[in-house]
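Open question from group meeting: does this chain pack into something compact, or does most of it stay loose? Before anyone orders reagents, we agreed to write out a predicted structure and look at it together. Recording both the input and the output here so the notebook holds the full record.
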Amino acid sequence: MKIVSFYFSCFFLAGTLLPVLSLSKEADQSNSESFDSEPDNAINVFKKNIRQLEINAGPLSNKLTAPLVSLGILLNENRLYSEAEDSFRRALHIHRINNGLHNLSQLPILELIIANNIRQQNWRATNDNYHLYHWLYNRNYEALDPDMLAVSDKLIAWHLLGTTLDTGFHPGKHFIKLLGLSERALHIVENNPVQDDLELAKRLYKLALIHYYIAIAVQRREPVGVYLM
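Structure tokens returned:
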């Protein structure tokens, strides 16, 4: 059992959780480092250009999307995460007005917002935005479309991490999401003849490990176990 537990940790941590944890660690380190209190002059230049563009093209012009994203990235580089998120969110709002609520071209902006949520350790917002990401895929693809595998893997990684964090949700809810997402991913592979046997084995392995992890929680009578019983 210890061997299985070891492989479980390596499988998920190496491939999925470490990128998420590294963003949070990056923010922790940045809080302890000293930096100039005044933003870089480039930020003020960006803001001035955006204000001028608003006057010329209007406050909801699609031309504002790219500059707002660039401003957000620059703010992130200066560790002004809250301002950066405001810029990203405004870019997302304008993009959705001009291109539609369900357009997948908004996903890169949403990914920047999620990365910022993680840097600020805002786990509730992270959870909400991951599910907005999933909802967008659901609006554009059939439930068993192979293109759903990528977003399923993103949410599986998030909910697995969520069982270890104070996300504002009971850990059992994260496990229920994990099971549902993993079972759907398995069904996608089973119903798609293009997928090879190795992909099927990988999905079965993931699902078995999640069942194992839940069983351990139940055995130890942890809160998640009580929730799932």
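Observations to bring back to the group:
The mean pLDDT is 82.
The chain is about 75% helix and 0% strand.
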